[in-house]
């Protein structure tokens, strides 16, 4: 049997202790993170999460030892790409993912790195005086010229496509232009909680869209509850109000006299009566003296409004007639 170094046993024991202590355990990729930035990220996570770097085979052994107590945690071993470290916390996985994403910063592109997204040089003034830099831009495929005493990029240009390697010359040019296209930070590969493994694509939720979806779901559930007359704390008052309104409308339409419907029924009947009266007003003897007088009073009451409207129209027409004259006057 091969001898196992004592430090390895101690390392696995310490890793197992971390995994056993926390409810949420994940794997993070620390590759290409400068030491200074990693130190700052560790400080920002102090009191929130523990990060422990180790060899992949030792992490795997610790996960296997913990699998009896934490079912399926050994499945984290399927996400060991990159420079892996363990992260342990009491935060829920979605909050942990958001904190790690928010802590990422922009960094210069280094020669040999793979661009995760298209690297774009924007159109406009570079701030450089005419000189050799113009040739450097043109050599890496960036259309540039001298404009008003400055080197200007003529149009927005993709200098490195997503998935391509950044060349030494492109990296130097981007650095001189102060363009930092790379994002540096801790990448959460996968995280374990209560028997389930969550990968980064599951944890990366759009907060605004999720909130909108929840609000739409609430509105749909609310409307369903009201229309189906299923009373809940949120819908009972709306259901009662809707039932009351429908009962009043039914009572008015069916001319069922109650203390709530008598006034609108009488008002509706009177409006219909006046409408019919106005239609037969020209027929001699069709209206009683009282109804004819009432109809006449209603017409007189409406007349001033019509006259005011007519006056306004006349004034507007007069103003419109003056405008061409004023326009001709401006020509002389």
State the main characteristics.
332 residues; alpha+beta; five-stranded antiparallel sheet; three-stranded antiparallel sheet; 50% helix; 15% strand; elongated; disordered C terminus
Helix-strand layout with pairing:
Elements: H1 6-21, E1 24-29, H2 35-44, E2 49-53, H3 56-66, E3 84-89, H4 93-102, E4 105-107, E5 119-121, E6 124-125, H5 133-139, E7 144-147, E8 150-153, E9 157-160, H6 168-176, E10 182-184, E11 187-193, E12 196-199, H7 200-203, H8 207-227, H9 236-253, H10 262-279, H11 289-329
Antiparallel strand pairs: 1-3, 1-11, 2-3, 4-10, 5-9, 6-8, 7-8, 11-12
Helix pairs in contact: 1-3
Helix/strand/pairing category: alpha+beta
Instruction: Please trace the helix and strand order, writing H or E for each element.
Output: HEHEHEHEEEHEEEHEEEHHHHH
**Low-confidence parts:** 305-332
Total helical elements: 11
Shape: elongated
Terminal CA distance: 112 Å
Instruction: Give the helix proportion (percent range).
Output: 40-55%
What is the averaged pLDDT score?
83
């Amino acid at each position: 049997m091969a001898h196992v170094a004592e430090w390895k046993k101690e390392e696995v024991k310490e890793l197992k202790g971390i995994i056993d202590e926390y409810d949420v355990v994940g794997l993070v990729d620390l590759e290409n993170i400068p030491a200074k930035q990693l130190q700052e990220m560790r400080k920002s996570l102090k009191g929130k999460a523990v990060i422990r770097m180790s060899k992949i085979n030792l992490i795997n052994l610790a996960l296997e030892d913990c699998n009896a107590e934490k079912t399926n945690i050994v499945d984290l071993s399927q996400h060991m790409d990159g420079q892996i470290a363990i992260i342990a916390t009491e935060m829920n996985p979605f909050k942990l993912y958001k904190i790690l994403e928010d802590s990422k910063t922009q960094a210069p592109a280094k020669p040999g790195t793979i661009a995760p997204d298209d690297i774009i040089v924007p159109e406009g003034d570079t701030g450089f005086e005419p000189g050799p830099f113009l040739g450097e831009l043109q050599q890496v495929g960036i259309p540039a010229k001298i404009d008003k005493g400055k080197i200007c990029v003529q149009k927005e240009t993709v200098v490195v496509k997503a998935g391509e390697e950044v060349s030494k010359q492109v990296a130097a040019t981007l650095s001189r232009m102060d363009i930092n296209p790379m994002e540096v930070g801790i990448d959460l590969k996968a995280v374990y909680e209560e028997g389930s493994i969550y990968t980064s694509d599951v944890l990366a939720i759009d907060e605004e869209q999720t909130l909108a979806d929840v609000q739409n779901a609430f509105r749909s559930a609310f409307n369903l509850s009201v229309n189906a007359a299923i009373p809940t704390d949120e819908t009972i008052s709306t259901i009662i109000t809707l039932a009351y309104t429908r009962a009043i409308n039914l009572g008015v339409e069916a001319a069922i006299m109650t203390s709530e419907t008598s006034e609108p029924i009488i008002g509706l009947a009177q409006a219909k009566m006046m409408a019919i009266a106005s239609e037969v007003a020209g027929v001699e003897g069709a209206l009683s003296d009282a109804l004819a007088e009432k109809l006449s009073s209603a017409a007189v009451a409406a007349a001033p409004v019509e006259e005011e409207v007519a006056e306004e129209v006349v004034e507007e027409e007069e103003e419109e007639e003056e405008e061409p004259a004023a326009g001709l006057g401006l020509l002389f």
